[in-house]
Write a structure and sequence with these properties.
seven-stranded antiparallel beta sheet; 143 residues; alpha+beta
Amino acid sequence: MATLLQRAVLALKAVLALTAVLALTALLLLPPTAAWAAPVSWQEVPASALGRQWWDAGSVHPNRDGNLVVLSRFQPPVDPDHPDQPPPSGRLYVSELDCAQELYRDTAINGIPQWRAEWQVPGADDPGLQVLRQVCAAAGRIG
């Protein structure tokens, strides 16, 4: 009786191994499907002495708290004392916007989550203030 049970277990293991091999083979041989992503629609805000900033109109959406979330990119200005140097590297931000209070917090910078990000008030010459105002106006949430 034990040998019959052992044979059944061995047969089951063989079927499982064959199934795994066939599944891996299919994954390797089948062509990958295209990944669909929404087109990026960068909207530039007026530049300031702090640099240039754009926001992506296709990324704007409300979060669970009712605030808006937006993807933006920031480019610091070129150093006027060293115009021959390459421009400083920019950053990508995912920001949460509180339109009613004109506050923002960066929840990710260059893809790195910013846990427990604090709400901030943008300065008058901060391009982030223009991003906040343009995004809120586009979403019909002028504060």
